[in-house]
């Protein structure tokens, strides 16, 4: 009876066969943390994409939980990442650079 391990898994793990799910998310690596990135409004708009499609693609690629806090008229906002910080930040930087609104390197151009 070596087949009993499957019965011990939570149901959501057995059902996690959707191709859009990351094959190695933050839970698989153990490299999990939390970080808040400061971004300009234009960068936040770039990262969200039309109808949220870009941020959803980033979430799918990284498996991270990404939340955006940006008051409507504010020139700056905050993006909090929970998951594999290094990978998620790298993907966000790559996406923003490809869209022509790159993030400054750490510490540059941040609000006071």
Our estimate of the beta-strand percent is 15-25%
Secondary-structure class: alpha+beta
Are there runs of 5+ residues with pLDDT below 50, and where? 1-6, 9-29
> How would you name the CATH homologous superfamily?
K Homology domain, type 1
Oligomeric state of the chains?
single chain
What's the number of domains?
Answer: 1
Please identify, by name, the CATH architecture: 2-Layer Sandwich
Mean pLDDT: 79
Number of helices: 6
Helix content: 25-40%
**What name does the CATH topology carry?**
Ribosomal Protein S8, Chain: A, domain 1
- CA radius of gyration is 17 Å
The CATH class label is Alpha Beta
Distance between the termini: 63 Å
**Overall spatial form:** globular
By DSSP, the count of extended strands is 3
The largest beta-sheet arranges its strands as 1-3-2
Protein name: K Homology domain-containing protein
Region (Disordered): 1-31
InterPro entries: KH_dom_type_1, KH_dom_type_1_sf
GO molecular function, one term: RNA binding
Written account of the structure:
- It holds the Pfam family KH_1.
- Keywords: RNA-binding.
- One of its GO terms (molecular function) is RNA binding.
- It comes from Alexandrium catenella (Red tide dinoflagellate).
- This is K Homology domain-containing protein.
- The protein is an alpha+beta fold and 112 residues long.
- The protein has a single domain, classed as K Homology domain, type 1 (Ribosomal Protein S8, Chain: A, domain 1), CATH 3.30.1370.
- 39% of the residues lie in helices and 19% in strands.
- It has 6 helices and 3 strands; from the N terminus they run H-H-H-E-H-H-E-E-H.
- The protein has a 3-stranded antiparallel sheet with strand order 1-3-2.
- The longest helix is centred in the last third of the chain and has 14 residues, at 85-98.
- The radius of gyration is 17 Å and the shape is globular.
């Amino acid at each position: 009876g070596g087949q009993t391990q499957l019965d011990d898994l939570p149901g959501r793990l057995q059902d996690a066969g959707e191709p859009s799910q990351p094959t190695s998310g933050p839970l698989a690596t153990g490299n999990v943390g939390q970080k808040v990135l400061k971004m300009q409004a234009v960068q936040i708009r770039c990262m969200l994409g039309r109808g949220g499609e870009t941020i959803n693609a980033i979430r799918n690629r990284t498996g991270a939980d990404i939340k955006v806090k940006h008051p409507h008229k504010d020139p700056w906002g905050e993006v909090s990442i929970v998951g594999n910080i290094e990978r998620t930040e790298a993907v966000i930087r790559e996406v923003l650079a490809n869209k022509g609104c790159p993030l400054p390197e750490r510490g540059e151009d941040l609000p006071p």
